[in-house]
Write a sequence for this structure.
């Protein structure tokens, strides 16, 4: 009898547990965030090569969707010009847990996209139209579309907003001043003098001779400037995705638009006179402006930009530099996530 009683208790316990699990599953259905079923990009794990129409023909650009959230979708615009989406690898460690969908994207002539190598295509106007074609292809709308631009991507994001803000739900300008001349002035008048005088003298001597291909120039910048203002870690500790991005950088488009020097945009760089400071008040979209205390971009200028925008907010990464999403992740990602969710919940002020 005792054995039968114990067996009966076990059966009752198992049934009760199963019912509890079933009820729990009904009350808390599994998240659809990682459900790619019935999606046209399930076969490729979220990757789509999107055809872009230009005056010089049709070319394909690389995109990769991570997650599935029809209300919060962030398109990432990388820096350079000529950089790659690889710089944003750190986002994998934060946004999925918050169920925010984000989309990697290599602009035309960047590593994973087609490379026609035609400088007539390297204009902000043409890149803006490229972003718009990507938006349409990915079905991003004013009800879910957040645009995040980092560095040069910040220029592109702002230019897109100035033309197409009606398509945006939220805008994020990450580590980019709104005036190329002011950027150069800050580099030369504030950051340069902070270097060892002998190091700065040698850098300037090499620049004066246009000897930018000299390995010594790269060595000086990497060891004395980049580790202070681009990514505040010893070079040997730089994250693999950043090293990979630099290895994949397209120098042709970079030099054409940005120039050789890291002390502003100089020479014949097509962006050297770019300035939209007098147009910021026209942007009504909720906007997060992200700055780093140690950035190549003046944090005071970035604060001014946030205040100039009618619906702007500043996120200052106290320990961050140009790649603040690596050297100040504890500030960068909580601030970014808070912004996206507040805009989504109509709580942004």
């Amino acid at each position: 009898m005792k054995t039968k009683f114990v067996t009966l208790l076990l059966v009752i316990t198992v049934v009760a547990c199963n019912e509890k699990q079933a009820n729990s599953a009904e009350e808390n259905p599994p998240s659809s965030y990682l459900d790619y079923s019935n999606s046209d990009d399930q076969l490729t794990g979220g990757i789509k090569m999107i055809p872009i129409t230009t005056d010089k023909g049709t070319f394909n650009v690389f995109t990769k969707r991570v997650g599935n959230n029809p209300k919060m979708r962030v398109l990432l615009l990388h820096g350079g010009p000529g950089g790659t989406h690889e710089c944003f690898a750190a986002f994998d460690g934060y946004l999925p847990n918050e169920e925010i969908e984000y989309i990697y994207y290599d602009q035309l002539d960047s590593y994973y996209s087609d490379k026609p190598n035609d400088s007539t295509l390297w204009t902000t106007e043409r890149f803006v139209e490229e972003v718009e074609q990507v938006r349409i292809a990915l079905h991003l709308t004013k009800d879910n579309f957040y645009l995040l631009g980092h560095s040069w991507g910040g220029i592109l994001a702002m230019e897109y907003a100035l033309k197409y803000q009606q398509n945006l739900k939220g805008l994020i300008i990450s580590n980019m001043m709104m005036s190329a001349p002011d950027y150069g002035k800050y580099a030369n008048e504030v950051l340069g003098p902070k270097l060892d005088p002998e190091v700065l003298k040698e850098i300037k001597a090499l620049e004066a001779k246009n000897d930018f291909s000299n390995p010594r120039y790269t060595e000086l910048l990497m060891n004395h400037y980049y580790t202070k203002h681009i990514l505040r870690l010893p070079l040997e500790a730089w994250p693999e995705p950043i090293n990979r991005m630099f290895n994949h950088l397209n120098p042709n488009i970079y030099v054409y638009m940005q120039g050789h020097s890291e002390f502003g945009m100089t020479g014949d760089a097509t962006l050297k006179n770019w300035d939209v400071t007098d147009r910021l008040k026209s942007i009504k979209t909720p906007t997060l402006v992200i700055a780093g205390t140690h950035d190549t971009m003046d944090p005071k200028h970035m604060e001014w930009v946030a205040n100039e925008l009618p619906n702007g907010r500043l996120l200052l990464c106290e320990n961050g530099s140009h790649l603040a999403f690596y050297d100040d992740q504890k500030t960068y990602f909580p601030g970014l996530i808070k912004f996206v969710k507040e805009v989504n919940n109509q709580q942004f002020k």
Q: What stands out?
A: The chain has a mean pLDDT of 93.
